[in-house]
């Protein structure tokens, strides 16, 4: 219960942090990194993708790997250093390189999308959450945990939805 409370408290700090980066590109990487670190959902790897059926496109937006994590305490204070780090992070670059036809338009299930993308990214046991976004897009977070997420899938999904407020570059 204490961990759940700490996570919910952590999530409430994200909007203010995002606002502090007004005009900075790739805010999604900051938010994903913050959601995945050990003080929040403690995910080992995560890939955030957006599916746009109108343009028949599934695009990788940001990736997180705990092995490539940046110091969580300073990402918001030194955005230039964090962005340079993420630009070189192999897992993030692999996720960002994903560009394929829409899974939604081709009527693939989230489970099929997770299996396909998870396999491409080398995730051993991928899990997912997905949510509708504006303009009929769909966000999907494909992730891997070592021991198990410390909160329910609903809380993870609610936190992941914050990614939908970030611009896509």
Q: SSE layout and pairings?
A:
Blueprint: H1 2-20, H2 27-36, E1 45-52, E2 57-65, H3 79-88, H4 90-96, E3 99-100, H5 110-121, E4 127-132, E5 138-144, H6 153-160
Antiparallel strand pairs: 1-2, 1-5, 2-3, 4-5
Explain briefly what this protein structure is:
This protein has 169 residues and is an alpha+beta fold.
Give me some keywords for this one.
Beta-Lactamase, alpha+beta, 6 helices, single chain, 169 residues
Structure description:
This protein is α+β, with helices and mostly antiparallel strands and 169 residues long. It has a single domain, classed as 2-Layer Sandwich (Beta-Lactamase). It is 39% helix and 19% strand. A five-stranded antiparallel beta sheet has the order 3-2-1-5-4, with helices on both faces. A hairpin with a 4-residue loop joins strand 1 and strand 2 (57-65).
- What structural category arises from helix and sheet content? alpha+beta
Which runs of at least 5 residues are low in confidence (pLDDT < 50)? Answer: none
Strand order of the largest sheet: 3-2-1-5-4
Beta-strand percentage range: 15-25%
- The share of residues in helices is 25-40%
CATH architecture call: 2-Layer Sandwich
Quickly count the domains: 1
């Amino acid at each position: 219960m204490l961990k759940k409370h700490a996570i919910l408290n952590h999530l409430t700090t994200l909007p203010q942090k995002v606002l502090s980066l007004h005009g900075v590109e790739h805010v999604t990487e900051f938010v994903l990194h913050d959601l995945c670190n050990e003080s929040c959902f403690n995910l080992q790897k995560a890939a955030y993708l957006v599916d746009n059926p109108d343009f028949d496109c599934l695009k990788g937006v940001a990736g997180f790997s705990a092995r490539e994590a940046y110091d969580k305490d300073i990402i918001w204070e030194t955005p230039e250093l964090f962005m340079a780090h993420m630009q070189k992070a192999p897992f993030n670059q692999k996720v960002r390189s994903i560009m394929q036809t829409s899974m939604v338009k081709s009527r693939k299930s989230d489970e099929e999308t997770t299996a396909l993308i998870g396999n491409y990214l080398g995730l051993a046991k991928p899990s997912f959450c997905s949510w509708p976004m504006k303009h009929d897009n769909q966000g999907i977070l494909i992730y891997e945990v070592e021991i198990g997420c410390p909160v329910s899938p609903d809380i993870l999904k609610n936190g992941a939805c914050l990614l939908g407020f970030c611009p896509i570059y």
